């Protein structure tokens, strides 16, 4: 198992309260559990109200809930339709899926509506319709000041139709808005929000019609300043270009983990971008490389679960890993 030294600076809600940087030799570890989630990939994994949720994936799957306190998984309601290739967010006490694909490879279709899961009631509901001309899946999604932002994505499954679109949705006013396009299209990635900026890093331009499904990975990281309404590109490219990545915002970093590329095994690399400097850091590697899932942060612990251990969809897994984050408060 790899042991890597890294630094973490955490910025809390009050931006003036910055912790001291600290060296750590923490590493990812696989949890020995008595219960496990449904093995799946092209799903999402996120934290919501102190617990972790695994939703969607190929086939119609149940929602799986992980309680970090009891270290147990439980199965909840199945999704009303097959939902995959999406990045869910926690909003207004529920989990929202805004932009997803449905159906079999390679011509998966964009989902027409927002789908919402209520963990307290253990039930799904169909939300507002997504404008027909802007529907896509495999896109990044972030929440900022009550608005939901959709970044890039793909319109025609794995066949093609990747886009550089950026849209916002106001759930209160039920208003969609088209924003400036990103510098380049990308799909099979997750977005992060850091200090009012949307980070689009990792991903590829998937093109089964040219037999380039895994080839065209994107090294550049693009950054959208929501206040200024402008895009820029980070100084340095991501050290390990790959798609199918897991993404989370941690303090002042956008963390990109796992993924897939032309190599057979899924990636175990974890790398973090500091948008302020445009530089990347290497973080501890996963125990098991995986793609098509997500990252969830609860009480200073970073979790991942499920996904696929090889390129494509040939080896779905159900393991759960955790990394203890080194945080020193002032």
TrEMBL record:
Pfam families (UniProt xref): Beta-prop_ATRN-LZTR1 (PF24981)
Name of this protein: Kelch repeat-containing protein
Domain of life: Bacteria
Source lineage: Bacteria, Pseudomonadati, Verrucomicrobiota, Verrucomicrobiia, Verrucomicrobiales
This protein's UniProt keywords: Kelch repeat, Repeat
SUPFAM superfamilies assigned to the protein according to its UniProt record, in alphabetical order: Kelch motif
InterPro entries: Beta-prop_ATRN-MKLN-like (IPR056737), Kelch-typ_b-propeller (IPR015915), Kelch_1 (IPR006652)
Signal peptide as annotated in the record: none
Taxonomic source organism: Luteolibacter algae
Residue intervals of the Attractin/MKLN-like beta-propeller domain: 24-259
